[in-house]
Amino acid sequence: MLxxxxxxxxxxxxxxxxxxxxxxxxxxxxxxxxGQNAASPVEAAYSARAGTPLxxxxxxxxxxxxxxxxxxGAVQAxxxxxxxxELLVSLRGQKSFSKRYxxxxxxxxxxxxxxxxxxxxxxxxxxxxxxAGAVASAYPNTDVFVSVTEVRRIxxxxxxxxxxxxxxxxxxxxxxxxxxxxxxxxxxxxxxxRIRLFRAGTGDDSRAVDLYELFITGNGAQAGLRxxxxxxxxxxxxxxxxxxxxxxxxxxIYELPPDRxxxxxxxAKELAGGVLRPGAQRALRFAIGPNxxxxxxxxGGAPAPVLTDGDLLSLAPLREDRRGEVRLExxxxxxxxxxxxxxxxxxxxxxxxxxxxxxxxxxxxLAATDPATHARTLLPVDLAAVLRGRDRxxxxxxxxxxxxxxxxxxxxxxxxxLELLRGARAPAAESCQGLVVLARALAARPDGPxxxxxxxxxxxxxxxxxxxxxxxFDAVPDLLVFALEHSRLLLGGVPxxxxxxxxxxxxxxxxxxxxxxxAVVEGAILESDEPLFELVGHVRRPGVRPLAGGAxxxxxxxxxxxxxxxxxxxxxxIERTDRRTLARALIPFSPQEVAAGRANRxxxxxxxxxxxxxARVRALLSPTPADSAPPSMEEPxxxxxxxxxxxxIVQVRGAVRDPGPYPVxxxxxxxxxxxxxxxxxATADPGAxxxxxxxxxxxxxxxxxxxxxxxxxxxxxxxxxxxxxxxxRAVTIAGAVRRPGSYDIARGERLSSLxxxxxxxxxxxxxxxxxxxxxxxxxxxxxVYAQKARELxxxxxxxxxxxxxxxxxxxxxxxxxxxxxRGVEPLGRIVVEADxxxxxxxxxxxxxxxxxxRIMVPKRTLTVTVTGEVQHPVAAQFVSGKSQDDYLREAGxxxxxxxxxxxxxxxxxxxxxxxxxSSWNHTVQAIPPGSMLVVPRDPKPFDFLEFSKSIGGIxxxxxxxxxxxxxxxx
Length: 970
Hints:
Soluble_ligand-bd, ion transport, 7 domains, alpha+beta, single chain, signal, five-stranded mixed beta sheet, 47 strands, Outer membrane lipoprotein wza fold like, porin, 26 helices
């Protein structure tokens, strides 16, 4: 009895520990929203049984902000309008403006000076037709454009197992998923398959919604149903569940369908997204018995429904082995498996097209598996013989060929390897697995050739580099020891002294191009008496050459004959290795100076001479991503050499064809730098070249007289452009001139010259009404309008935060005014004198022209326009001596929204003058033809604004802009 009790308590303790572990694991999963970090009781229970974290399906589909799901995009013409919808109405023609209007609670759309239109229940297309008719009766020849800028909000009541139950507002296009997201989403204690939707006005009638249809198949018609104002949603508690684990697309916990209490094995697999690997599967069912015990059952291929509430289904492939495969790994372009049927031998497995740049040809490793014992054996392979077709060794299933690169071979002589060969007992912390295996091999054979042989003694005098362990030695640790066991230590005749592995066949070439046919002696130390150097990069015949008779750079480059035509002329690099310390030095030189016989340098044994193409240097120093550069067939530039190029930069800017950074050796002449930058541009001024030294001093030189003047690393050269007599862009003159059109202008040219070039004014021209538009002035006016709109919006935000209902109407007016300020398109009109007779007598009034100026000279007119807040805007006939009162009476007089104290007159040339009509001012103003009387809107509704003094000016500027548009259109 005591023993049984102990077992019960031990099981309870184990289950508690697993539940706590699953709780912590699920809580730490990335991607959980705040408030969802803790595992639900259902998740904790299933995770403890499965021994791996399992999550409930579907609950991460809800956004944290329901408003973000209510965007509408473009509203279609069949959208039914209602109170609260905001519309943008634009009129173009006799009346031109763009304003936003909101359909009021009565369903009416009221546009300024147009009869109200009943918009409720109309589609957008029907409203456009209705509004077009209303506008046509008020303003003939006026087009109407209507679009929806903001849809109305509707209220939906969401209750049950949601994050924030209650009434929530969503957009008129909102769906059930939007409402649930606005309510904080369904909690993991709620059901996703038994949601009830109660339609507004239908009593207790409801619809069942299963979100699994939407989340799994995308066909959830009910879930995508558009909600109405007043609809109700109820989320009941979670229903029966089961869990699926193993190699499936969606392992997790799933709720059973609302009309079923069990599933078949096939249905459970489909619910989890199907298995990741086709083929026979082992299906185990873990069920909770009537007494609470867990039972295990192998389902096999049971077709009947066998999975019920609380079941845990575990799937696993019957077999996970792979047949008919060999592998190609390491320094190849596409590592991975290959079909044995097409690669039955080494020469069929590997071709030159499979190799990455800088492969190591004397040695590769074949990992073969003995079919009888299944023991794994490493065999050396002469890669050069394989590529020549001389090694056609057959392959077996499971074999793998590992190809080494130059970096892999360099690591054999790295400092971490040399430290172990000198006697270190263990590699440094966090070393790769290859070093760990090497340390174990040395410890297992302390008197072996690797630990006590001649190579180990010679390694004690070497200094290796601190390069990172290649991934190949971390993935296959045995390769490092195997490569060292098949290596010889070359101290001469190679560019980089060190360990070089070799397969030892008769076709094995020594690294760097030494003669073939020499037998490999494992563990040998070879030091060649023949000095060598290597040409690398953009040369006609790259490779290793004998360093006979103290060769120099000039001998190596053969007076320029070894260089390709597009070699970069200003910088090459000699990579030199010290034989004793293995320390490397980088020595810059100028290929151009060497080829011209003005510079030279003696080469040393093992030197590597790097030369580059001009295109490759530009691509290396370009700010564009490296993957956008064209691929190069040359070997990659070592990182240290690339860093040297980036350190020795001269910036060439200004009027050259290819400005940018150009690396140099010590210094380069200005002529050579300009030639490297593509030469002078057509606009260059060779006599005004600025040279800024790295210490900040600057001087101006004439390129033609610069001679051998040089610039070095850190300097900057700027080729200034020559002064241009012509402006970059033309001006346009139109209207009553004899030759209208676009004209190129010289710097400092004036309006009178342009009028003269255009043939002068015609007989019907009206110079006082000339419209002069300037782009810079248009941008300034737009900035002013935008600033005023921002001030209005900031004031509205403060008023809304105060919550004062008394100012709600003022806030609405301010919103309309801000919208109008953002929508207005300023013209940039400036006042000029355009009469050629006046300009000849007053040259100081003749304006200078700027690029993109537009001038329009109108024909003589006999009308005066009255616009703004009047009963009926009109173009009245001009009569000499007619007063402003007479013109206003012809327009029906001011409206009740007019500001009679601020009526102003826009003269034909664009100037504005006030026309005060108050009792204390009876100034008589002559009104010339082509003028415009503007009655602005009363700014009194905006008296509450902190900047109310400027509102009158804002309204006046808007009126002037509208008046200018009307003048130009006329």
